[in-house]
Amino acid sequence: MKKTINLRSLAAQALEQVVEKGQSLSAVLPPLQQKVSDKDKALLQELCFGVLRTLPRLEWLVGQLMSRKMTGKQRTVHYLILVGIYQLLYTRIPAHAALAETVEGAVAIKRPAFKGLINGVLRQFQRQQDELLAEADSQEIRFLHPGWLLKRLRAAYPEQWEAVVDANNQRPPMWLRVNRQHHTREQWLALLSEAGHIGYPHPAYPDSVRLESPLPVHQLPGFEQGWVTVQDASAQGCVDLLDPQNGDTILDLCAAPGGKTTHILEAAPQAKVLAVDVDPQRLKRVYENLARLNMQADVKCGDGRYPDQWCGEQIFDRILLDAPCSATGVIRRHPDIKWLRRDADIAELALLQGEILDAIWPHLKSGGTLVYATCSILPEENSQQIAAFLARHPEATLVDTGTPAQPGRQNLPAAEEGDGFFYAKLIKG
Question: Known catalytic residue: 375?
Answer without folding.
Answer: yes
